[in-house]
Amino acid sequence: MDIGALLGLEQLTWGMLVLVVIAAFGAGWIDAVVGGGGLLQLPALLLIPGILPVQALATNKLASLAGTTTSAVTYYRRAKPDLRTAVPMALIALAGSFGGAAVAIVLPASAFKPIIVVALLAVAIFTAFRPEMGAATRLRFQGHRHHIAAGATGLLIGFYDGLIGPGTGTFLVITLVALMGYDFLQSSAKAKIVNFATNLGALLLFIPHGAVLWLFGAILAAANVGGSYLGSRMAIARGSTFIRVVFLAVVVLLIGKLGVDVWNENIAPALAS
Fold first, then answer.
1. Nearest to residue 72, comparing CAs of 194, 182, 176, 211?
2. What is the C-alpha to C-alpha distance for residues 189 and 184, in angstroms, rounded to an integer?
C-alpha cells in the first residue's frame, strides 16, 4: 500500500509515519504533564518532505486538540479543577488566540521571540531557586480580583498561542502557579481546559483554508490521545513535585528552541550584513 498517496503526502514513507506517530505520542505525554508538546510534534511534521508549513501547523492543531481534550477530561475527573475559573479563562483565551493570529499576519513573530526567551530564562531561574513554589495552593487573589487575573492570563497567553504557539501550555502552568498561587497539579488541570480552547480557535481558522490533512491528522490524534492519557494519569498520581521537574526540563528545551530561532532570524542576518 502506498501510504503517502493514501494520506495526501506523496513522499511520506512507512518509516517516517512510524517516527511521527512516536513523536505525537511523546508530545501528548508532555502536553498532558506541563504543556509544550508542540516542541516535539510540529518539528517532526515539518521534516516530512513535501508537507506545506500551513498543513503541518493545521494538522498539528488537530492532533493537539484531541490530546488536550483527553487530558482535560482526565484531569477534571480526578483533580476536580474549579470550572468557575477555568471556563471563562478558556473563552477569553479563545478570543486572544484569534487576536494573536490577526497580529501575526501583519507583524512577524520574530519581533517578539527575544522578549519571550528572556522571560523564559527568568521563569526557569525563579522556579529552580524556589522549590516551595507550586507545592501547595495558596491563592493570591479573591473574588473579582481572582477572576480578573484569570481572564488577563487567558487573554495574554491565548494571544501568544495565536502569534507564536510553542510552549503555550507551559506558560499557562507557570502563570497559574506564580501569579495566581495554584499548585502545579491544579495549574496543569486548568491549563488543559484553556489550551483546548486555544487549539480549537486556531483549528477553526485553518479549516476554511483546507489546510488540515484529516486522515493523517486522525492517526496523529490517536497517538496524541494515548500519550495524553498516560501523561495526565502519571501527573495526577505523582503530584506537583513530578510536574515541577518535567516543567523545568520543558522550559529549558523551549529556551533552546526559541533561542535558535532568535539567532537565525535576528542575530545571524545582522552579523552577515
1. 194
2. 9
Res 132: pLDDT:
67
* Domain enclosing residue 113, as ranges: 3-272
CA–CA distance, 251 with 23 (Å, rounded to integer)? 18
Domain count, the chain: 1
pLDDT in tens, 115-143: 677 777 876 777 777 766 656 788 888 88
- State how far the alpha carbon of 93 is from the alpha carbons of 81, 88, 241, in Å: 17, 9, 27
C-alpha to C-alpha distance for 139 and 153, rounded to whole angstroms: 15
Measured in degrees and rounded to the nearest 5, phi and psi for residue 107 equal -130, 120
For 273, the 3-state DSSP assignment is: coil
Residue 146 and residue 88: Cα distance in Å, rounded?
12
